[in-house]
Structures are given as C-alpha cells and as structure tokens.
Design brief:
By secondary structure, the chain is of the alpha/beta class. Helix 1 packs parallel to helix 2 and helix 2 packs across helix 4. The relative contact order is 0.09. The mean pLDDT is 88.
Length: 195
C-alpha cells in the first residue's frame, strides 16, 4: 500500500505520485518485471519510473475507450500529462492488448507494433470446465431455464460489447426450439442495447 487515490481529488493524486516515485526509487531493484493495469497517469508513471530504474514494465490495456493516450481532463491538458505519456509511450517495454480493437488504438497512439502483445483474458480451466449433463439440468431448473442447449452472453449492455448483434444473429437461427440465448450483464451506459 502506497497511498489512497481519490478520483476527484488532485491532492490525493499528487500525494500518490510523490510517494510512488520515492517507493520505486527505494524498491525497484527488488523486482524483475512490473505489470501495470492501464496507461493512465498514475499507473503509467509507475511503469515509467521502473523503466528508468532498469526494470522492464508491461502495461495491460483492457478497455479500448480508455487506453490512456486519448484526451483527458482540462487539468491533464494544461499540465501536459497526456502529451508526456504519448511522448514517452515507447520507453515502456511492452503493452498487453486483450483485443484487436485495443491493438489498433495503441498503434494509432504511436505505440510500436513490436511492443504490443495480443493476449486475450484467460480462463481458469480448473474452475471452469464442462460439467455432467445431470448437473446442467439441476442448474437450469434452479434458474428456471428450459433444459436445452444454452448460449450465454456475459458482459455489459453497451455499444462496445454489442449484445444486440448476438441477438440479431440468434434470430437468424432456423431451428430455435433446441437452443436458447441468455444475456446477463449490467447496463452501464444506458444505451439502446438493453431495450
């Protein structure tokens, strides 16, 4: 634990960066590689300082709309934070992209292609594995679902996830009596997707 970061508090952000820089300086040589989530300023600067200390850093980008190199707040523009990240983006050893859309956004932001690694989110196959048909029947009964082949969508009802496309494709299936579609997820954007 280094410091709290409150979203709307400039003070807590500055406090975190000061403490983080000191912490990296004192602890960098204890690490072989650093993995950061997102390229927003707080995580980008930590990765940048580790790189400067000779420790390779990898930044994982998991949302195409929020890769960390697009326009930020007014304060970010005034202070030149996005400009700094873009200028120094290729000092980071590697970026993990979980989708082709994110890879494209990183390329558009000026990240060298050889620094981008496409690694989709993984699945724990010890926890998530096929179950017996009898167990499926019990679960479907408990959830009040029909006992037939089930396609499951889990994700937000957003334009980016586009569950509507799946629903339209499902509507094209001619043999609908042997298959069902179940959509599960929040409606964070209040888009037309859920309707």
């Amino acid at each position: 634990f280094i410091s709290d970061i409150e979203k709307k508090s400039v003070y807590s952000g500055i406090k975190f960066l000061i403490k983080a820089k000191r912490w990296v300086k004192n602890n960098a040589q204890s690490f072989d590689v650093v993995h950061c989530l997102s390229a927003f300023h707080h995580s980008f600067m930590v990765a940048f300082w580790f790189e400067k200390a000779g420790v390779p850093s990898v930044i994982k980008i998991s949302e195409a709309e929020y890769i960390g190199f697009s326009d930020g707040s007014l304060l970010s523009k005034i202070l030149g934070l996005r400009r700094f990240r873009k200028k120094n983006a290729n000092t980071i050893s590697a970026y993990i992209s979980i989708s082709t859309e994110i890879r494209q956004k990183l390329l558009e932001a000026g990240i060298k292609s050889e620094k981008i690694y496409n690694i989709p989110n993984g699945v724990n196959i010890d926890r998530f594995k096929p179950i017996m048909q009898s167990e499926k029947k019990k679960i479907r009964k408990k959830l009040e679902l029909q006992d037939k082949f089930t396609v499951l969508f889990t994700g937000s009802f957003s334009d980016r996830k586009n569950p509507l496309l799946l629903v339209k494709a499902f509507g094209e299936i001619h043999n609908k009596e042997n298959i069902q579609l179940l959509l599960v997820g929040p409606d964070r954007e209040e888009s037309d997707q859920r309707e």
